[in-house]
Amino acid sequence: MAYLKLYKNKLQHNYQMLAGWFATQGIEWGVVSKLLCGNKTYLQELLNLGVKEFHDTRISNLKAIKQLNADVQTVYIKPPAKRSIANVIKYADVSFNTDYSTIKMLSDEAGRQHKIHKIIVMIEMGDLREGVVGDQLMDFYAKILHLPNISIVGLGTNLNCLNGIMPSEDKLIQLCLYKQLIEAKFNIHIPWVSGGTSVTVPLLLKKQLPKQVNHFRVGEVLFFGLDLFRNKTIEGMYDDVFELYGEIIELYEKPKVPNGEQGFNVAGGKPSYPTEDYGKKSYRAIVDIGLLDCNPKYLILEDDDMDIIEASSDMLVLDFHQNKQNYKVGDLVKFKLKYMGVLGIMNSNYVDKVVV
Predict the structure, then answer these.
(1) Alanine racemase N-terminal domain spans which residues (predicted)?
(2) Can you give the residue range of the structural domain that contains 290?
């Protein structure tokens, strides 16, 4: 049976590297845990590391975190849906916001639950996902400033996630200027400039981060050690905190090209085949994972003598060529994974999750 393995020593190593970098710059930070999909075994490993702040986009995941440790700070990192307001107040200590009517509802619900709810106002800085437009920011801030039961603890921005717009020193300076303008106009103090995500870590390492950016929220760099500017592993970090193991359930030498009238496969595609493969054979293995678990494009084979052919809903076909490794039915094949690969596996109830 297929299973996902988390290496706790590698996770701890990456965490300690990040903690050291942030500590030297006086930066507060939290872990984006949405990749773990509320899995309590894996969330507990983060708590064991000493994580005090969790960021997530799913209320059910925040609920799972609070059940494990009610004292950690939970941050809901997308604008809340109005139908979710009560649960946002119940399970999130902080939320990201961009809409006045939503914040007004948070204020009212926080009063009903006898809480003060903290918010971070997200500002549009070019990636065109969530964020208040800059020339509307002052009027927006004036409207929310005196809402009861609400504490505005930060300004933030999101980059890279939708259109791939990268953070830059200039963009982050602009974010800091918004903080200065608001503080001057309204005679207030804003504790956080939450301009840091995994993609911003390289700017921190190159000392290109404005000093007022004092809050980070990181997930991908913790779990994959990835420098998203260069698409390479940051020196000294592990890129294989997670590994997937699939079991071979069939292995035969078969033709490289199918035969018969071709239609569309279960995924809606119509595979094509190189001309040079016609008439040739190779060893083809079936592994017990499929599209229900993960898109094959997010799997990385470590063995150069294997190729991924295609997947159906529950099975993945691999080309072992001449099978120089002498694999047999029952053996395990190891995969490294990209971020979306782990996310797919974590969402699958059909793949076991273990800790090493």
Answers:
(1) 9-225
(2) 242-355
